[in-house]
Amino acid sequence: MIPQVRRLPSLWLIDMTQIATKPPADVIATTVEAAPAAVLVADTEARVLAANRLACEMLGWRRVELLSLGLSDVGLAPRALARVFAEADERGLTFGAALLRHRDGRAIPIRYQVTRIEVAGNPVYLWVTYLRRSARRSARRDPGRRRSARAFRLTERELQILQLIADGLGNRDIALQLTVSLETVKTHVRRVLGKLRARGRAHAVAIAWRHDLVD
Predict the structure, then answer these.
(1) CA dihedral 176, 182, 188, 194 (to 10 degrees)
(2) pTM, entire model
(3) Using one digit for the tens of pLDDT, what is the confidence trace for 97-147?
(4) Coil, strand or helix: which one is 145?
(5) What is the 3-state secondary structure (H, E, C) of the chain?
(6) What are the residues facing 127 on neighbouring strands?
(7) Which of 130, 190, 198, 213 is the most exposed place for a label (fewest CB within 10 A)?
(8) Are 35 and 41 in contact (CB under 8 A)?
(9) Tell me: the pLDDT tens digits for 73-109?
(10) What separation, in Å, do the N-terminal and C-terminal C-alpha atoms of the chain show?
(11) Could you give the percent of the chain with pLDDT greater than 90?
(12) Number of neighbouring beta carbons within 10 Å of residue 65
């Protein structure tokens, strides 16, 4: 199993009790605005109910425009949304990594924590996100990582692919982020698995973590 994404350190400065117990619209808007991370609130149909200033800046939309959109309009695929909602419904809380889409079309790599809360008897989903670092430690700049990469004969591109797999991205999302074809990604993934002698993606990530090949 791919290791869980670490909990966002600043998330719980949001007052969840107020959101859950006071009149919904105003309290949601006020509470998420004060959050120190980019926050989106969506209903069960994935329509955006609230967004704070940081979310608007991250996505490049004015708030009034963002509130007319759905999460799929900012890059989250319906299938991925269904999975996230199902996990939040089951556990109350879920974590992960994804790509959002800026208004100008750029991919925005994020980590997220999604919490299901009840507002006026209805479930809503609180998405707290922060940008993932686009510049990871590379083998060229990190002697320990360079030695490990050399031992497995991994190229810099293959290390990039391995890091994105560890972040939980699928092949299509990796292709989008690296601006390469899906077939190119599949070829790289096959090579990575072969060089690591991994049985699958999760096994590859476990090996990579043990040998400090990924963050």
Answers:
(1) 130
(2) 0.58
(3) 788 999 998 888 887 889 998 877 889 999 998 887 543 455 556 777 788
(4) helix
(5) CCCCCCCCCCHHHCCHHHHHHCCHHHHHHHHHHCCCCEEEEECCCCEEEEECHHHHHHHCCCHHHHCCCEHHHHCCCHHHHHHHHHHHHHHCEEEEEEEEECCCCCEEEEEEEEEEEEECCEEEEEEEEEECCCCCCCCCCCHHHHHHHHHHCCCHHHHHHHHHHHCCCCHHHHHHHHCCCHHHHHHHHHHHHHHHCCCCHHHHHHHHHHCCCCC
(6) 40, 114
(7) 190
(8) no
(9) 999 888 889 989 998 999 888 877 788 999 998 888 8
(10) 16
(11) 38
(12) 15
Q: Locate CATH 3.30.450.20 in the chain.
A: 11-131
Q: Which part of the chain has CATH 1.10.10.10? A: 143-210
Amino acid occupying residue 151:
A
To which CATH superfamily is domain 11-131 assigned? PAS domain (3.30.450.20)
CATH number of the domain at 143-210, out of 2.60.40.1180, 1.20.1090.10, 3.40.50.300, 1.10.10.10? Answer: 1.10.10.10
